[in-house]
């Protein structure tokens, strides 16, 4: 029987995780700066107790679009923080932001079409386009490492089915201003606004949201980053009213139901959202300061600081190695995981994405291993 193997976009980050796993029990403790999660622990600040009866109650499937309580709590956040009257019927709870993106692609794209991404982008955007048989067009960045709004309009063609906007962005932590979000929303193309880092500013500023334009476009978010609940896999997708029926149909054929227990915990934590975000941002500022001080002391060159994210970028453009090779060598030989710039952009931008929100005890030894490797090739 003939077997057809469809090529799939390969990410060096996936190989990094495999290489790190091979170090278990070895001489060097693996340090994972590659994985996109924060070491902030919300349960140090808020006690969420579940009895046996509670667990039995949430063991079955949750509602198709998610629990009504969590959807109402999400709407309350947008009403209080942005003055936007979001209705719970427009919110679909998903298995993290990943499923929210998958649902959006399923509703907006068809094989043979195109989506527009920033030249430097979260790699799964590209992978989802491949899954749905869609071509990618890449819009350039501006001097702030943001999607260039003026250039974006020139990328639109008759085949354009959606624009994917990530602000704050991964990997740069760059932020589009409110007027730029409005300009993008005014283009005659559906937009998927990915806002998973929107709550994690390194300052006290409020990062703009595109929720005011969600009557025409889609908003992706999750609790993996804001509340540091990556393992709970709870995210959400906000859709226009015209997509409310369709999103339920698509959800029914993906995960059918997101974790009911996870939704209950997220709803309980959202009652303390202000306190938790304040403490989380304080931790991120502390880690960023530690990260930059250690990097400077070791002679590592950093790209411009993020406005909101979990990542710092180490500039390796002066070294005679491409970022993918450096990342593999670091994982294989020094048990340090980093994400190479080549996963985010072509041609290789020659940086390493490092998660500065990792445990503080990992920052100095991890950066020291990176510096010792790079010194060999300077």
Automatic annotation (TrEMBL):
<comment type="similarity">
    <text>Belongs to the class-I pyridoxal-phosphate-dependent aminotransferase family.</text>
</comment>
<dbReference type="InterPro" id="IPR004838">
    <property type="entry name" value="NHTrfase_class1_PyrdxlP-BS"/>
</dbReference>
<dbReference type="InterPro" id="IPR015424">
    <property type="entry name" value="PyrdxlP-dep_Trfase"/>
</dbReference>
<dbReference type="InterPro" id="IPR015421">
    <property type="entry name" value="PyrdxlP-dep_Trfase_major"/>
</dbReference>
<keyword id="KW-0663">Pyridoxal phosphate</keyword>
<keyword id="KW-0032">Aminotransferase</keyword>
<dbReference type="GO" id="GO:0008483">
    <property type="term" value="F:transaminase activity"/>
</dbReference>
<dbReference type="Pfam" id="PF00155">
    <property type="entry name" value="Aminotran_1_2"/>
</dbReference>
<dbReference type="InterPro" id="IPR004839">
    <property type="entry name" value="Aminotransferase_I/II_large"/>
</dbReference>
<dbReference type="InterPro" id="IPR050596">
    <property type="entry name" value="AspAT/PAT-like"/>
</dbReference>
<dbReference type="GO" id="GO:0006520">
    <property type="term" value="P:amino acid metabolic process"/>
</dbReference>
<protein>
    <recommendedName>
        <fullName>Aminotransferase</fullName>
        <ecNumber>2.6.1.-</ecNumber>
    </recommendedName>
</protein>
<keyword id="KW-0808">Transferase</keyword>
<feature type="domain" description="Aminotransferase class I/classII large">
    <location>
        <begin position="31"/>
        <end position="370"/>
    </location>
</feature>
<dbReference type="GO" id="GO:0030170">
    <property type="term" value="F:pyridoxal phosphate binding"/>
</dbReference>
């Amino acid at each position: 029987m003939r077997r057809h193997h469809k090529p799939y976009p390969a990410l060096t980050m996936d190989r990094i995780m495999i290489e790190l796993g091979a170090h278990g029990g070895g001489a060097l403790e693996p340090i994972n700066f590659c994985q996109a999660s924060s070491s902030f622990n919300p349960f140090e600040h808020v006690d969420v107790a579940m009895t046996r009866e509670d667990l039995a109650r949430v063991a079955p499937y949750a509602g198709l679009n998610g629990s009504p309580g969590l959807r109402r709590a999400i709407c309350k956040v947008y009403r209080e923080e942005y003055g936007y009257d979001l209705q719970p019927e427009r919110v679909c709870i998903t298995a993290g932001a990943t499923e929210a993106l998958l649902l959006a692609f399923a509703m907006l794209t068809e094989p043979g079409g195109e989506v527009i991404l920033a030249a430097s982008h979260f790699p799964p955007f590209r992978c989802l386009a491949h899954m749905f048989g869609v071509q990618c067009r890449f819009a350039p960045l501006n001097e702030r490492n943001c999607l260039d709004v003026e250039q974006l309009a020139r990328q639109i063609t008759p085949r354009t089915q959606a624009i994917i906007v990530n602000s704050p962005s991964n990997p740069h932590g760059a932020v589009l201003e409110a007027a730029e979000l409005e300009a993008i929303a005014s283009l005659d193309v559906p937009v998927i606004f990915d806002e998973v880092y929107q709550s994690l500013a390194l300052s006290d500023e409020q990062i703009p949201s595109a929720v005011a334009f969600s009557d025409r476009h889609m908003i992706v978010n999750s609790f993996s980053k804001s509340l540091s609940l990556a393992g709970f896999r709870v995210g959400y997708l906000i859709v226009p009213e015209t997509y409310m029926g369709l999103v339920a149909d698509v959800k029914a054929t993906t995960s059918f139901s997101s974790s009911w227990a996870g939704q209950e915990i997220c709803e309980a934590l959202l009652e303390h959202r202000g306190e938790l975000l304040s403490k989380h941002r304080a931790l991120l500022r502390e880690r960023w300061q530690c990260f930059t001080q250690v990097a400077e002391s070791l002679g590592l060159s950093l790209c411009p600081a993020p406005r909101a994210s979990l990542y710092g970028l180490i500039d390796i453009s002066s070294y005679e190695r491409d970022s993918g090779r450096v990342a593999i060598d670091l994982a294989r030989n020094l048990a340090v995981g980093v994400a190479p710039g080549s996963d985010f952009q072509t041609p290789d931008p020659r940086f390493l994405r490092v998660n500065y929100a990792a445990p503080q005890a990992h920052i100095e030894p991890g950066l020291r291993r990176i510096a010792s490797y790079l010194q060999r090739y300077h």
